[in-house]
Amino acid sequence: MPLPNGVIASNDGRTLYVSDSHLKLWRAYPVRGDGSVGPGRTFFNPDTPDRADPDGMTIDERGNLYLTGRGGVWAVSAAGEAIGFIPMPRFCSNVTFGGPQGRMLFMTCKGAVYSLAMRVRGGDPRYW
């Protein structure tokens, strides 16, 4: 992959997700028992006219991913299906969960940081 960008592992550590800024999509790789990765596949490639580079990502306690790029933040199931979209007025480069109970989604965008209260917690085990 010529331009890998954001990266995160699934909550169980069995899948590695990578933002592919060259092809402008997101890929998934199985993580083998020895820590190496198997052949990748296209995980998410929304049909949108916006071709902004995929960038950062995070995961929630249910295994859903939040992917920055292509016009905002995409909420995507572990199966690679879009379950929501947060349009952003500026290019959004990264996203993470935080706050007292891990239910705040923070998004860094060009010249601004946004936050959004969520019903789910981040996938970081400190919040479980």
Q: What share of residues is helical?
A: under 10%
Note the total helix count. Answer: 0
| Outline | globular
Measured between the Cα atoms of the first and last residue, the distance is 34 Å
Q: What is the helix/strand order?
A: EEEEEEEEEEE
Strand order of the largest sheet: 1-2-3-4
What about the largest sheet? 4 strands, antiparallel
Top-tier CATH class: Mainly Beta
Secondary-structure content class: mainly beta
Q: Give me the count of strands.
A: 11
Strand content: over 45%
Radius of gyration, in angstroms, nearest whole number: 14 Å
The oligomerization state is single chain
List low-pLDDT spans.
none
Please indicate the count of domains: 1
- Per CATH, what is the topology? Neuraminidase
User: Can you say what the CATH homologous superfamily is?
Assistant: TolB, C-terminal domain
Which architecture would the CATH scheme give at its second level? 6 Propeller
Mean pLDDT: 94
Report on this structure.
The protein has one domain: TolB, C-terminal domain (Neuraminidase), CATH 2.120.10. It is mainly beta and 128 residues long. The mean pLDDT is 94. The chain is globular and about 40 Å long. The protein contains no helices and eleven strands. The strands form three sheets. A four-stranded antiparallel beta sheet has the order 1-2-3-4, with no helix packed on it. Strands 5-6-7-8 form a four-stranded antiparallel beta sheet, with no helix packed on it.
